[in-house]
Amino acid sequence: MSEAPPLRVAVVGSGPAGFYAAGQLLASEEPRVEVDLIDRLPTPWGLVRLGVAPDHPNIKAVSRAFERIAARPGFRFLGNVEVGRDLTHGELTELYGAVVYAIGAQTDRRLGIPGEELPGSWPATSFVAWYNGHPDFQHLEFDLSHERAVVIGNGNVALDVARMLALTPAELAPTDTTDAAIEAINAAGVKEIVVVGRRGPVQAAWTPVEVGELGELAGADILVDPAELELDAASAAELEAAPPTVKRNVEHLREYAARTPDGKHRAIRLRFLLSPVAIVGDERVEAIELVRNELVDGRAVPTDGRELLDCGIVFRSVGYRGVPLPDVPFDEGRCTVPNDGGRVVDAAGAAVRGVYCAGWIKRGPSGVIGTNKKDATETIELLLEDARAGALASGQAAGAVDRLLRDRGVAVVTQSGWEAIDAAERAAGEPHGRPRLKLAAWDELLEAAGFDPVSG
Ligand SMILES: Cc1cc2nc3c(=O)[nH]c(=O)nc-3n(C[C@H](O)[C@H](O)[C@H](O)COP(=O)(O)OP(=O)(O)OC[C@H]3O[C@@H](n4cnc5c(N)ncnc54)[C@H](O)[C@@H]3O)c2cc1C
Ligand SMILES: NC(=O)c1ccc[n+]([C@@H]2O[C@H](COP(=O)([O-])OP(=O)(O)OC[C@H]3O[C@@H](n4cnc5c(N)ncnc54)[C@H](OP(=O)(O)O)[C@@H]3O)[C@@H](O)[C@H]2O)c1
Fold this sequence. Notes:
Layout (H helix, E strand, L loop, with lengths): L6 E6 L3 H11 L6 E6 L8 H4 L6 H4 L2 H8 L4 E4 L10 H7 L2 E4 L5 E2 L12 E3 H8 L16 E5 L3 H11 L2 H4 L6 H9 L4 E5 L11 H7 L5 E5 L8 H9 L2 H14 L8 E6 L2 E7 L6 E10 L2 E12 L2 E4 L3 E2 L17 E2 L2 E3 L5 E7 L2 H4 L7 H18 L9 H10 L7 H15 L12 H7 L8
Parallel strand pairs: 1-2, 1-4, 2-3, 4-18, 6-14, 7-8, 7-14, 8-10, 9-10
Antiparallel strand pairs: 5-15, 11-12, 12-13, 16-17, 17-18
Helix pairs in contact: 1-14, 10-12
The site of flavin-adenine dinucleotide has 36 residues, from helix 1, helix 7 and helix 14.
């Protein structure tokens, strides 16, 4: 008796959500599943490679779990394949029994204030991608010559940006930060990095470990004005009832406010209850105008108080934002793919057969790496339920997508191509005591994967 053909699933996006989804699918025995994990980049792991701060190697080590998933039978990596460019949504639904979109949030939220587009005003998304070696961001030049940099936002990404700017040469040296970024940060004239939150210390989105490590930086004092830690009655009550993480955040801040600065080379100053109203400058950023807020029912409401802060560069770290893919349903308000537990739904709320989503594009740009495991598991349980109910076709044999991509001249980076990139990067880092020296140019990546960049 011949065995039933496996269910063939395309998972689009090889960040944490895509890998956890692939892992859940490959663990299924009935139906048996084969996964093509597709990414527009020649490298997998999404924000674990290109978002997580390079001075946090222990967090990047989650990639070992992804490598174990990639080693399972039935797994293929199809890198350098962009859905919407190299393959359409319609083709994916023809080729595969099911498609899982795990494309993350590819751009930044805007502040919507005058001066946001001035040279020197940057989304944190670009800076993070640059220092992490994302091949689309290596042409950027960040002018770090002014002595003050401002970071807008009170999330963990804002702290990553502030901390990266404050690291000493000795702290940067053992990381996989790109050499260009290490050189620029080491040579920067920045003396003070001001992190600006629109609400108070109790409402900050960051987490205690990340706030706590600011106090241990070798080359930067951490400055907090005790007056900005004074809580109104509502915030005091909120803190009283808050989870331990919020209490620990505030304890760290109070400890910082009580410190006497050591006079280190740089300083990170944490400010609260201030919103940017304009980024100011003739040709480029010269200052930022801030309005003092008060909290009303937990919301930041502007008062008459204003201040102008001289600065040469502004990083807007107010969240990532999902972008639509052609022909895939999209909720313009939430910037996510509309779904019911991971089953993609159309404008009328009806499930789109065989189409699913997971991770940041499913629930919005929040949550740590592990959050995506639970999230992907929820999606894949529904997908397998649909498969077991006979609602999904099995999909075409692997050769069909391979032929289509070959005919289109797409240089597909397979798992072995990625492993060649990985080996080259690790070998280049090893003599310098660094985890890897990232290849950050498209042609270098493709060449390391075995393609001849000249003849294609
Ligand atoms: C700067 C930063 C630092 C972070 N640091 C930490 C941390 O220290 N610890 C922690 O636990 N969490 C951290 N997080 C959160 C964590 O990275 C996210 O929760 C997680 O990466 C989201 O996973 P995802 O798979 O949904 O998206 P992503 O990781 O963004 O992966 C999406 C993937 O989809 C691919 N893709 C996009 N569009 C297409 C397309 N059209 N075709 C094919 N492929 C496509 C992308 O190339 C990418 O590889 C951080 C987040 C950021 C932004
Ligand atoms: N080390 C880690 O574990 C780590 C590192 C990096 C990222 N991450 C995770 O990745 C996710 C994304 O992080 P994130 O920092 O991008 O997002 P985030 O946690 O949602 O923080 C966004 C911040 O921007 C502020 N903000 C939003 N709109 C604003 C506006 N118009 N003006 C001023 N401030 C505004 C928010 O303030 P309000 O609260 O007032 O809206 C909030 O402080 C988070 O879940 C984070 O924990 C984790």
